[in-house]
Amino acid sequence: MDLVLQGSLLDLTDEMTLRDVGTGLRRTHLGRGAWVDVRPGWLAAGDALFTALLHDVPWHAERRQMYESVVSVPRLTKFYGAGERLPHPLLDRAREALSAHYHDELGEPFVTAGLCLYRDGRDSVAWHGDRIGRSNEHDTIIAILSLGSARTLALRPRDGGAMPGWLPEMSKKSLRYPLGHGDLVVMGGSCQRTWDHAVPKTSEPVGPRISVQFRVAGVR
Ligand SMILES: O=C(O)CCC(=O)C(=O)O
Ligand SMILES: [Fe+2]
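Above are the sequence and the 2-oxoglutaric acid SMILES. Below is the predicted complex in structure-token form.
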């Protein structure tokens, strides 16, 4: 793959370090029992991880039926199910640290890792909730480590639903979380049922981004 990380992101002199999850973590309650935690710079000096994943992961180009035609999903993906070997030891450590931090709230460990590669600003993920499995009816937590170029994770109430204290015109707007190299974002509570999220396309000249989503068993 001939995608390269922009030079400005390179910090090769520092050692790759997973910092404490709880330090600098900020929770925002979105209403309807949903919340989002953001922990900027969770992974320090993560260039080696980004580069390794870019080259070592057997990325898939998915094709999906859309009405009459078959279209390419605008990103590359690879899913590691429970018990599957992850493509880099740092991802095992990240998953363990997240399972420990969220143990009391979640009650079960993170076991799967879904990887997405957004090659440039044309790659994206459309509005959706991760509602396959228990998350369709029960609260869950999904933790996402972002690597490479900064992209926005956008969130909006599902079905444009009326929120207490929200004006009708606000239902068209979305909350926007800019995610940079090494940042952690965690969606919890009812977030997958009551809110949708997306990584919108951008016309900005952005390089590649990889996201690693950690989930509990049976949730996609
Ligand atoms: O890339 C991201 O940060 C989000 C990916 C996502 O929402 C998904 O794969 O379900
Ligand atoms: Fe998602």
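The helical segments are 47-56, 89-101, 103-106, 191-194.
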